[in-house]
Amino acid sequence: MSTDVIELARRARLTSRKLALATRATKDAALLAMADALDGQVDEVLAANDDDVRRAQDAGTDDHMIDRLRLTSERVSAMAEGLRDLARLPDPVGEVVRGSTLANGLELRQVRVPFGVVGMIYEGRPNVTVDAAGICLKSGNAVLLRGSSSARGSNAALVRVLRDAVEDAGLPADCVQLVPADSRETVKELMRARGLVDVLVPRGGAGLIESVIEESTVPVIETGVGNCHVYVDAAADLDMALAIVLNAKTHRTSVCNAAESLLVHADVAQTFLPAVVAALQDGGVTIHGDAAFASYDGVVPATEDDFGREYLSHDISAAVVPDLDGALDHIRRYSTGHTEAIVTGDQAVARRFVAEVDAAAVLVNASTRFTDGGEFGFGAEIGISTQKLHARGPMGLPEMTSTKYVVTGDGHTR
Amino acid sequence: MSTDVIELARRARLTSRKLALATRATKDAALLAMADALDGQVDEVLAANDDDVRRAQDAGTDDHMIDRLRLTSERVSAMAEGLRDLARLPDPVGEVVRGSTLANGLELRQVRVPFGVVGMIYEGRPNVTVDAAGICLKSGNAVLLRGSSSARGSNAALVRVLRDAVEDAGLPADCVQLVPADSRETVKELMRARGLVDVLVPRGGAGLIESVIEESTVPVIETGVGNCHVYVDAAADLDMALAIVLNAKTHRTSVCNAAESLLVHADVAQTFLPAVVAALQDGGVTIHGDAAFASYDGVVPATEDDFGREYLSHDISAAVVPDLDGALDHIRRYSTGHTEAIVTGDQAVARRFVAEVDAAAVLVNASTRFTDGGEFGFGAEIGISTQKLHARGPMGLPEMTSTKYVVTGDGHTR
Prior knowledge:
Number of strands of chain A: 16
Mean pLDDT of chain A: 95
CATH topology of the largest domain in chain A: Aldehyde Dehydrogenase, Chain A, domain 1
Distance between the termini of chain A: 52 Å
Strand content of chain A: 15-25%
Radius of gyration of chain A: 24 Å
Oligomer: homodimer
Strand order of the largest sheet of chain A: 10-9-11-8-7-12-13
Number of domains of chain A: 2
Helix content of chain A: 40-55%
Low-confidence stretches of chain A: none
CATH superfamily of the largest domain in chain A: Aldehyde Dehydrogenase, Chain A, domain 1
Number of helices of chain A: 15
């Protein structure tokens, strides 16, 4: 495979013209072929992954990262199942978003079309390789996959399997291309391939995403950093609040929709703090608290930094706020615009929180963990956008498309 | 007014929080107040404009540019009427784009919300100042207006009138702010105000737009450059084709949806070329043609450059293509992705053209001049997006919003 990213992008562009015209039947057949191929060649994939894991272990990579990197036959099987799920979802391409006949008789249709070429820049998990390849193929986009160098063997093996299957199903193999991960230069080239690449989706840590936004001339969809708050209002059912806080923090800590910060209305602090501190600590969570929280045993005094952190671990920052306005101010200051939740029984308070919090998702009396394409019923998710342009929140298949106006007349002039 | 753009952006951000919560009734009242104020203070506006026009004349600016700059009482009146039209349009904010109750009983709503702060960077016409202020206000966005220095007196007068009216109507004057046009630095500051400005909309020539895309870290919506083609197919009704070509080229030449290039199928060239050359030349159009066209009197031989040009004048490039594929290849090579039209009576040809041409609008048997927010029935237009992200084609009020997911439960956890 060539290491010239621009050449890869050119091939993707050419291929995208064919893929844009592919019918749903053809695309679904390719997805099923990809799934079967993964199942059939699981041994090759696992062997390549073993090499990656061994190299990472030799380099002293921590266990958490190794776990993200490691594939098992169950994980490969789950990827294949994900592709089969995609085949069952409706094709976003061709959907008429808006349509009318104008006063002069012109027929106006706004129709979903693929972007063309999508670039994915991501870290860690090799399952993103398969998910992104599937979602892009179903939405009619050629994809350029730039994974991390730690997963390069796994990604190469996966892409080899997928490309062969795509070709066997009658679509060009170049629908799915791997961008070499051997140097940081290949990311830079991808970010400057304006005109060849239509959109870049970075998935990973805040540093990766920030650098792509800074440097890319290709339009970027920002994803994923979540400093999510749970605000327990004075009018909250405190048992409900406790269950939501625990679930939001401890159900899965390494994901962007996990809670990272707890705010409690001063009026219920005396009742709620002992209960929530004990419950979180029982769950293995370290609380980085303001003065009110820090008066409890085991609570670490919070620094300014703590309130801005996305821990992705068994840590949570916590503060008592004087009232709803205090909570809103705090969230405005520290929010990454991902997911913010309130627990309250007061309808007027809930309405204000929903109206005034500026985030992709605002949850009332529900755990932050629900901000997820699967939970929202989208069936597939390429990431969670935290920007306001194009897509905000979980992005499913329709979010991976643009639109085109088709206007039909019979000789209309102005 | 401070010349510190970041300070203006901070004020816009603060104001945007209030404006986002304003009801439709409040916003419409402000729009009507703005319209009345323009009508009432037309003399001050015209006096300021006179100074701009005189300065431009002294600088030797060409008549075409002077005409774009010049305001008349009719033009000011039309701006006021535009604001009243906006007041009649539905409020995009609060519209539920998608909504369902999930299997677990969670209520999911995707609701339109304002972006927050919009930056407009534009050239020439002072009417953009009023249009943009109105559209941003109606869509709940605070706006930072950076017009051209040639119109700085007119823009300052207009913004003064608008701000007073907004304040009288009970909204903060800072909903509408003018960014000083005294140096290029103010554009640069606007482009780096990520986090304070949510989206930038450049309107103007290709050079302006290219530089904003290159340099901005604020997300940009690319607008307006249109190298629009009309392709006359072998199966075209040639009378219809002639009318469409003439309308597309000569109805108004200075706009982005004017035709700039004509492609004719070889099979009808012998019949159509004499007619279209004569008709265009009668209309005062200079044809820059390939060899087939250049054999006609008065046709200037086209250079490679001509086919890539957006003339915005009484000029058109023209070529004969061997077939539909030739037309598609030519368009793929030179299109700016704005508007492409075909004239054909062949349904299969029309279907292929619509499917394969990659542009914001594809027109069948209609003039390119119809790609317009007004013609599409949107009632207002901030520009025509030629990019694929977020909005493509004419952008009305809904395109000036983002969305937010609101999820309501009664203690839901995962």
